């Protein structure tokens, strides 16, 4: 049994690589923006007081991602993955030639739209295709593969001063990688669960209202689960998102780190913290998703607060690496839960809804940070105040969400046949 749990069949290993490769580029793109924020801000003349607001607006690409991910429950996972990777490629390439902050904002918002939809679908596909005994393990590997994108961004960022076009070259590199993924992904097959669901549907033309069934079912079939997932996701994203977005800026402007030093620290921290994905995957299969998620949320909150409050350089580095480790663990566990709690007929829709909640709460946190920054006098003080909201996410995890580890998806979330809604 142990040997089986540590080795995926060849077909599933290929699936994991084809799906996870886009997470690699997605996280590379996010890492570049977080690291190169000071250079992008200076190049495009973004006012200091608008940095948090602009970052938040870009994250609202998730609102455009929702209909894309929702359509995966209507037309299939594979087709939507090809559409989203093509959209990401174009938006990323054009970002590299943006001439002002408005163009950059629009293009990055579009890029986030497609990348958020990609992220949602990747976790759904792995949840549907991998054996329940290995699901947490496989999702941990998927997330770890994505984190290598952060490592690449950190490595390249150390060379920002010698690249011919500065931060713009990072986006050209990302677009080239997406083209390779698009070509390789043509061999990807539809998930068996969705294929079975599609075969069971009547072969008739469906009305627009019938196409919206996954959205209606999400709220009607499991309202308690959905409410608990909202109550978990919202305070955690609200409290933590700004702290993660400002780390490079904080290190450079408060502690005097050079871009090269920030890149090396991110690379070192990421190399160590990526183990959080592996640990969370295995531990959540053995100890349960709820236990791992509760502990990791608490650790993220405490360690990020320590990062922004300490003046000790050793504690600064240790708290950052520890916070990143715990955040990776919480992220993959929450993604696993979000993919397991709802049936196949609207699993992608539920993942999209959770992402919308996550990003909306994150944007709210960024907006609040911008609002209270003038009152408290520093980004660090504003961020620590926001972090107080994050531990409240633990309560619904322990009190209201069911355990999903080591259980089949049909057992965790059977299809619920609801009476049709009025058109």
Task: Write a concise synopsis of the structure shown.
The protein contains 22 helices and no strands. The protein is mainly alpha-helical. It is globular, with a radius of gyration of 21 Å.
Can you give a write-up of this model?
This protein is mainly α. α2 (10-35) runs antiparallel to α7. 77% of the residues lie in helices and 0% in strands. The radius of gyration is 21 Å and the shape is globular. The protein has one domain (15-191, 209-401): Growth Hormone, Chain: A, CATH 1.20.1250.20.
Key structural traits:
423 residues, mainly alpha, Growth Hormone, Chain: A, 22 helices
Helix-strand blueprint:
Elements: H1 2-5, H2 10-35, H3 37-44, H4 51-59, H5 61-75, H6 77-95, H7 101-129, H8 135-157, H9 168-184, H10 192-200, H11 208-211, H12 213-221, H13 223-245, H14 247-253, H15 259-273, H16 275-286, H17 289-309, H18 313-340, H19 347-376, H20 379-387, H21 394-399, H22 409-412
């Amino acid at each position: 049994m142990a040997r089986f749990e540590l080795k995926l069949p060849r077909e599933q290993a290929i699936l994991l690589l084809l799906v996870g490769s886009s997470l690699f580029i997605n996280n590379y793109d996010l890492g570049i923006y977080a690291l190169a924020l000071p250079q992008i801000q200076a190049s495009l003349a973004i006012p200091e007081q608008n940095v948090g607001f602009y970052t938040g607006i870009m994250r609202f690409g998730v609102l455009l991602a929702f209909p894309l991910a929702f359509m995966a429950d209507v037309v299939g996972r594979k087709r939507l993955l090809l559409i989203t990777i093509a959209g990401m490629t174009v938006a990323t390439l054009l970002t590299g030639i943006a001439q002002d902050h408005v163009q950059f904002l629009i293009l990055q918002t579009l890029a986030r739209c497609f990348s958020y939809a990609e992220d949602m679908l990747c976790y759904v596909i792995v949840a549907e295709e991998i054996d329940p005994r290995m699901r947490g393990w496989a999702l941990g590997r998927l997330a770890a593969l994505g984190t290598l994108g952060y490592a690449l961004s950190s490595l390249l960022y150390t060379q920002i001063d010698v690249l011919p076009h500065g931060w713009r070259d990072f986006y050209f590199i990302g677009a080239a990688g997406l083209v390779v993924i698009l070509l390789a992904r043509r061999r990807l097959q539809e998930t068996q669960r969705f294929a079975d669901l599609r075969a069971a549907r009547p072969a008739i033309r469906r009305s627009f209202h019938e196409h919206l069934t996954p959205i209606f079912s999400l709220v009607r079939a499991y309202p308690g689960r959905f409410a608990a997932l909202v109550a978990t996701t919202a305070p955690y994203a609200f409290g933590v998102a700004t702290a993660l977005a400002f780390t490079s800026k904080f290190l450079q402007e408060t502690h005097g780190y050079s871009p090269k030093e920030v890149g090396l620290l991110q690379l070192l921290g990421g190399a160590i913290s990526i183990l959080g994905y592996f640990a969370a995957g295995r531990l959540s299969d053995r100890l349960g998703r709820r236990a791992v998620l509760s502990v990791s949320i608490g650790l993220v909150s405490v360690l990020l607060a320590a990062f922004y409050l300490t003046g000790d350089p050793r504690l600064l580095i240790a708290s950052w690496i520890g916070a990143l480790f715990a955040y990776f663990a919480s992220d993959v566990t929450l993604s696993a839960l979000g993919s397991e709690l709802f049936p196949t007929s609207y699993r992608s829709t539920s993942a999209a809804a959770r992402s919308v909640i996550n990003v909306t709460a994150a944007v709210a946190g960024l907006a609040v940070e911008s609002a209270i920054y003038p009152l408290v006098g520093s980004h660090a003080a504003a961020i620590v105040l926001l972090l107080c909201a994050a531990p409240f996410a633990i309560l619904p995890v322990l009190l209201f969400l069911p355990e999903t580890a080591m259980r089949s998806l049909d057992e965790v979330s059977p299809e619920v046949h609801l009476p049709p809604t009025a058109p």
